[in-house]
Each structure stands twice: as C-alpha cells, then as structure tokens.
Amino acid sequence: MATKAKSSAEVSGGFTGKIGYVMAAAASAVGLGNIWRFPYLCAKYGGGIFLLVYLILVATFGYTLLVSETMIGRMSKKSPIGAYKDLTARRSHSTGSKVFAGVGGWVNALVPFLICPYYCVIGGWITKYFIEYCRNSVKVMANDDYFGGFIGKTAQPEIYFIVFLVLTLAIILLGVQKGVERFSKMMMPALIVLAIVVSIYSCTRPGASVGLKYLFVPNFHEFSMMTVASALGQLFYSLSIAMGIMITYGSYTDDSMDVDQSVGQIEIFDTLIAILAGLMIIPAIFAFSGGDPKVLQSGPSLMFVTLPKVFNSMGLGMAAGIVFFLLVLFAALTSAISLAETCVATLQDELHWSRLKSTLIFAIYAAVIGTCCVFGYSIWSDFTIGGFQILDFLDFITNSIMMPFGAFFTCILVFHFVTVKKMDEEIELASKFKRKKIYNFNVKYLCPIGLAIIFASSVLNAFGIISM
Ligand code: TRP
User: How far apart (Å, rounded) are the C-alpha atoms in residues 247 and 238?
Assistant: First the structure.
C-alpha cells in the first residue's frame, strides 16, 4: 500500500505531524510483502524458528534502520541520493567521502528499479485470480496443478503482467494516484477484517493445529544461516527499508515528531499483518495438504496454491475469492504505484528527463525485465542463475544482497559522518529518546557487523562457495 500522506505532503510541503508520517510509512509497509511473501518464507524456512528470528530482527535491525533512515531524511530534507551527498559533505569533502555518498545513495535508489518489475508480475497473477473468481472457477482453481499450469504458460501471464503494469503507469501519468490511494486506504480495514475471518476459518479446520504449532513453536533443528538471511531480507522488504523510501518520508517530517514511538507503531502494525497472513495460509497447508513438505517448500506460489483450497471448502467461496483478491489487488496496485513513482522521480531528478520521457523509458525497461521473469517460469524455465529462476533471483539479489549492503552504508553514514551524538540530539528535540542506549549500540556495532556477515554469507552462498 502506498502513500496518501505523501501526496498531502506534496501539497502542504510536509506531513502535518506524527499521524501523517505513521500512516504513510505503514501504508508503504503493508502490501504483498506481508500477505504473499511472509507466509511462503515462513513455511519454507522452518515456521516457528523463522518467526522467532524475524521478531528479533524487527526489534533490533528493523528498529535501528527505520529510525536512522527517517532521521537521515529529516536532517537533510532530501531524497536518498541528495541526502547521502548532503550529510557526508557536512563532515568531509574528500574523494573517499564522495565515492561513499555516491555508492550509498545509488544502491538505495536502485533497489526499487529491480523490485518494481517483478512486483508487477505478481500483481498480474493476482489480477488473473481475481478475474477467475469472478468467472466462478472456484473448484478448478483449488486443483493442485492449477497455479503451475498458469505460470507455465507464456502468453497468459504475460498479458496479465502487462495489464497490471499499464494500469500502474497510467495512474502515474494521469495523476489520479491520490484518488486510487484514498480509495485503497478505505479498503485496508476491509482487507484486515476479511483476513481475520479467513484465518479463523483456516485455523479451525481439522488438522490445522499441527500447522499452528509449526508456525508458533520454534524448532531449533531447522535453524540455519539461510533462516537469518531470508528473515532479514523479508524485514527490509516488508518495512520498505534500505531502498530510500523511508529517507524520503523522513524528509517530509519536522523536528517535533517523536521518531522513537512512531517507528514502534509501524513495526507492530506491519508485523501483526504478516502474522495474520501466516495464520491464514500455514494452518491451511496442514489441514488441506497434510503438511506436505513439497507444499511447504513451494515458495512464491504458496498463497496461490493454498488459499484457493480454503475458498473452495468454505461456503461462499466464490464471493470470498472475489473480495479477497480484489482487496489484495488494491494493496498491490498502490505499492506498485509508489515503487514506480520512486523510480520515475529518480530518473527525472538525476537525468533531468521530463516526466513523460521518464515514465515511458521506465515502462519499456519494466516491460522487458518483467517479461524475462514471466518467461523464466515457462519457455526459459531451464535457465537459472545460481539455482534461482529469474523472478526469484531478482528477489534474492535485492533482498539478500543489495539491501543489507545499502543498510550497511546507512549505519556508516550515521556513526561516521553524522555521528551518534548528533543523531541523539536531533531525536531528543521532540521527545525523550527511550531506547537511546540500544539504538547507539545497534547502529555502531550490532547492525554493521551483522549486516556485513549476512551480506558476505549471501554472496558466498550465491556463488556456491559455502552452503547455508
Ligand atoms: N513493503 C511493501 C510490502 O510489504 C513492498 C514495498 C517495498 C514497497 N518497497 C516499497 C511498497 C516501496 C511501497 C513503496 O509489500
């Protein structure tokens, strides 16, 4: 979901206060990451142990980086590339600092370019499911092979992808974003209510309790470095950190906002929605597929395989399917809009292209990359990069490699260039900084060291040098 408050910020020059920032950040945070991505990673990497690692990371890395990015934006009043340049230049003009600022700013700014195309491919899958539910294909879709059959085709997923992409870019060009975003804000509560109904239904099916146990009771034998790396990637993705968005939002806030408290609220909200999605999907795997390890490992397709079974067994399955996929479609659309908007704005600012030119060139670029992702599941399915299909590869390289790298730069920017002392003072302008000691320790030691380890192991793993 994206940014109503961002649009109002454009009008008024800033958020009107804490609520504006929290709403915009929470809206950007909640999206396919919570509903589609979290459940499949959780199922794949051991259930309870993944959840536990995830929660620990949210409270440490997530908290530290959200505070840092928001403050980088607030202090510089600029978007990522400018913010990096500005804050490093306050301290040093050496060539090293300039290179640091360039790399840090650009890594952050490039992530949305890689995420947006494949986000639209998944948006296309959701569009397809919505349309099929409208055509009352409830029974057919509950079939095990339905989803695989669909993405294994070439033309159909491509058409749905293009439809979703065109819709996203048309909204940007026509400037009707605000309308769409306001509308989807209203749909958000509906999505939560429906998700609660579906999760209660899932959790009360016979056999679902094993799934609940799988989700909530950590099994330490399932722990591996991969659990940490994927939980961290998910954290970045889900909270929209390490991609410049929160720096931009921070730049719209003023010095009177209580950052400490706002960040806490965003984390709690985002995490609760992810757990809710887990409750909807994971017990259902056990109730409907007997906890089949193949289903647990199925990755990006999980939601599309499991939920249709739930809807098929429920009364009113067609209505539930239509409403659910419509709501998710809106959540995905607003996120795609704000991802695409970020990319278009970067092209406009850095290359000085007009808005129309930036949008058109971005459209061609996204169509090409997205098409590669679509073909990666059909005619190019033999082609893998380091064992990943194309879509999974883009997902992996952004979440497990570029984002830890970008976040590492953010920590260095804070403790070396801005200095922790200055940061603390700035945060304390508005309120007491309750978690000051924890923040200072995290940003100086825990986060940079942890990020370096995770980054290194992801790279080594991708090249097959170690296996995690
Ligand atoms: N956090 C969003 C989600 O959970 C996805 C996302 C990543 C996003 N980056 C974004 C959304 C930037 C809006 C803007 O689905």
Answer: 16
User: 240 CB less than 6 Å from ligand 1?
Assistant: yes
In whole angstroms, give the CA distance from residue 252 to residue 66. 15
Three-state secondary structure call for residue 388: strand
What are the residues facing 388 on neighbouring strands? 385
User: Is ligand 1 within 6 A of the CB of residue 335?
Assistant: yes
Q: Is 271 in the pocket of ligand 1 (CB under 6 A)?
A: no
Helix, coil or strand: residue 385 = strand
Phi, psi of 430 (to 5 degrees): -95, -35
pLDDT in tens, 392-426: 899 988 988 899 999 999 999 999 999 999 999 99
Q: Does the predicted TM-score (pTM) go above 0.70? A: yes
pLDDT tens, position by position, 11-37 = 345 676 778 788 888 888 889 999 999
Kindly report the CA angle at 272 between 167 and 406, in degrees rounded to 5?
65
Distance 33 CA to ligand 1 centre (A): 7
Query: Is the CB–ligand 1 distance for residue 33 below 6 Å?
Result: yes
Domains of the chain with bracketed CATH: 8-462 (1.20.1740)
